[in-house]
Design goal:
Blueprint: E1 3-8, H1 13-27, E2 32-36, E3 39-43, H2 48-54, E4 58-68, E5 86-93, H3 101-115, E6 119-120, E7 127-133, E8 138-144, H4 164-173, E9 181-184, H5 191-198, E10 202-207, H6 210-222, E11 228-231, E12 246-250, H7 263-272, E13 279-285, E14 298-305, E15 308-314
Parallel strand pairs: 5-6, 5-7, 9-10, 9-12, 10-11, 12-13
Antiparallel strand pairs: 1-3, 1-4, 2-3, 4-8, 7-8, 13-15, 14-15
Helix pairs in contact: 1-4, 4-5
């Protein structure tokens, strides 16, 4: 079974590694994962390019060719360069040992040049060869250019809108696949709808505020997306529950957006009407749930600033 590696940004380490694991299990439920600091190793039928394309926090990714006990490499390791014109070597040191990284990268480049016709190119090479050192084990792998998905355009913004990466992570954590449908009952500017559509997932949005409803519609139209948006209260959700597979949403905080009633009341009511047997990723201001017993599979805390920590609850 092929093994892939993912070096993740350190902004939200647990969220980032859980996202990679969730994506790999979504397409192959027997996928196995190993997390070593901000490195995730995945054994799965799903290719590293597929996983990378959906993920939010990947800095570098590629395929592992073999685990290494030392720095020994031979000609067979460089078959991957057969059809490449250019390459570069990169060392990623996640171990506590010190290495002279530029020196190592140069000498590896020299060594490879002896086996292969490919030339070193530092910017945008065909193949990047990686040596990844950790305290436990080291890995030898490679990466090719990944075709990036075009980001959806947002022509109208609002101060309360959610960061697209956190939105995308929530969609991935509940394992929504292409062709399924997500509902955001507090859709605001439509971030969930835009992210979902850019991943091939259909979306339905609700917002009780006329202004936000219109912004969502305009943002969708600017991308030619067909998601449906309704100007209605979140409680309409229970009437349309057979139309979607999961919920991804960010509840009002009572700061920048209009609210129909106190945010804690909205949260309480919202949890009381949630449909059964749907996958859900729900974000809300952390202290709002202090008197509520909200059961779920996992909770993440997202620190924003000293007066705002948000919770993402996975149900
Ligand atoms: C935190 S914002 C959502 C932001 C959104 N994720 C985005 O990226 O733009 C919460 C939204 O809930 C909406 N809202 C407040 N009370 C509502 C209610 N009773 N029913 C539906 N929407 C409501 C507000 O108008 C606001 O757009």
């Amino acid at each position: 079974m092929p093994e892939s590696f993912f070096i993740l940004s350190k902004d939200y380490p647990e969220l980032a590694s859980d996202e990679i694991i969730a994506i790999s299990k979504m397409y192959d439920r027997f996928a196995k994962a190993k997390v070593i600091s901000n490195l995730v190793i995945i054994q799965s039928k799903t290719s590293w390019t597929e996983i990378t394309r959906r993920a939010s926090f990947v800095k570098v990714s590629g395929q592992i060719l073999r685990k290494m006990s030392g720095l020994f490499l031979d000609e067979n390791n460089f078959q991957i360069l057969k059809n490449a014109n250019t390459f570069v070597c990169r060392i990623i040191n996640l171990s506590t040992k010190q290495f002279d990284i530029p020196e190592l990268e140069n000498s590896m480049g020299d060594m490879i040049s002896k086996f292969s016709h490919a030339k070193v190119e530092l910017e945008d090479p065909d193949i990047t060869i990686y040596l990844i050192f950790t305290d436990r084990e080291s890995f030898f792998g490679f990466s090719k250019r990944v075709i990036k998905i075009n980001r959806p355009k947002k022509i109208k913004n609002h101060p309360h809108e959610l960061d697209w990466k956190l939105t995308r992570v929530m969609i991935n954590l509940i394992g929504l696949k292409e062709g399924e449908t997500v509902c955001d009952p507090f859709c605001g500017t439509g971030t969930t709808l835009l992210e979902a559509e850019s991943m091939g997932i259909h979306a339905i949005g609700l917002d009780f505020d006329e202004k936000m409803y219109k912004i969502s519609k305009e943002n969708l139209k600017a991308n030619g997306y067909k998601s449906k948006v309704f100007k209605s209260d979140f409680q309409e959700l229970s009437k349309i529950s057979e139309k979607f597979d999961g919920i991804v949403t960010d509840l009002p905080y009572g700061i920048a957006s209009k609210v129909s009633e106190k945010p804690e009341e909205i949260l309480k009511k919202f949890f009381s009407i949630l449909p059964k047997r749907k996958r859900m990723a729900i974000m809300y201001k952390k202290e709002l749930d202090s008197n509520l017993e909200l059961g779920g599979l996992k909770k993440y805390e997202i620190y924003r600033h000293k007066s705002l920590t948000r919770t993402i609850l996975i149900k």
